[in-house]
Amino acid sequence: MNVVPNPRSGLLLGFLPFVLIAAIYLVASAERRAANPNDKLLPPMTEMADTVRRLASEPDRRTEEIVLWTDTAASLQRLAIGLGTATLIGLAVGLALGILPMVNATLGTLVAVISMIPPMAVLPILFIVFGLGELSKVVLIIFGVAPFLIRDTALAVAGLPKEQMIKAQSLGASTWQVAIRVVLPQIMPRLIEAVRLSLGPAFLFLISAEAIAADVGLGYRIFLMRRYLSMDVILPYVAWITLLSYVMDYALAQVARRGFSWAYVEERR
User: Which of 2, 163, 181, 232 has the fewest CB atoms inside 10 Å of its own CB, making it the most exposed?
Assistant: First the structure.
């Protein structure tokens, strides 16, 4: 446990699992194609690369749109609206629950109960209430992510030293001033970390909603291609979703560390 890799060896160790996975895939794909030239389960890398090039550069014959970028734009728009709204709700309600005892007594149990409801179980209800358009997909992301953010924010507020709030009130600060100037700056790193943890579930809810009722989007394309066993499309799309999620996670991490560097002093020691 005391052996710590240096930056160069740490980078190499990080790449090693990906190299092993790629090698295993290449061997398995070659063996399946040797046994059955028409096998679709594990298409060669060259075949997938050609499919990605076509999807990313050639317009679709029916819609005249470039499929990969159209699907990506539609899914990211839904994700941004849903996750952004859930973050605002989580911040506002979480602050209120953590600071105001009356609000916590009134809404605390309700939020805890709602957070236990499986979001996918209410998806049919959302389609019935909001229709099959964009709103139901966005609401599913909000419903799935916001309760977690609310509870995590409230716990972060409750974990702050009470002496800080008492001192601020002794100096004449109102409840609003305590929330904005004392509490909010200290919980922002925790909120960003919670949003990072919510990226995976948010993508899950998005893909699920798109798979059921959509005519464009990453999830729609994956489940459409499933009918034709087009693994040369499905596997690159899964890899693309993973890359998008990783980039967003990395960007949020950089925002947190550069905007609130004081919260990460221990990591740099």
Answer: 2
Q: Which two tokens stand for residue 83?
A: 């996750």
- Can you tell me the distance from the alpha carbon of 225 to that of 231, in angstroms, rounded to the nearest whole number? 8
Task: For 13-59, write each residue's pLDDT tens digit.
Answer: 888 999 999 999 999 999 999 989 888 889 999 999 999 999 999 99
Residue 138: other Cβ atoms inside 10 A: 25
pTM strictly above 0.85: yes
Q: How far apart are CA 232 and CA 250, in angstroms?
A: 27
Q: Which of 201, 73, 210, 218 is nearest to 143 (CA)?
A: 201
CB 128 within 8 A of CB 68: no
Contacts 24+ apart (CB under 8 A), 130-137: 132/213, 134/78, 136/209, 136/213, 137/78, 137/82, 137/206, 137/209, 137/210, 137/213, 137/214
Contact present, 245 and 256 (Cβ < 8 Å): no
CATH architecture of 79-259: Orthogonal Bundle (1.10)
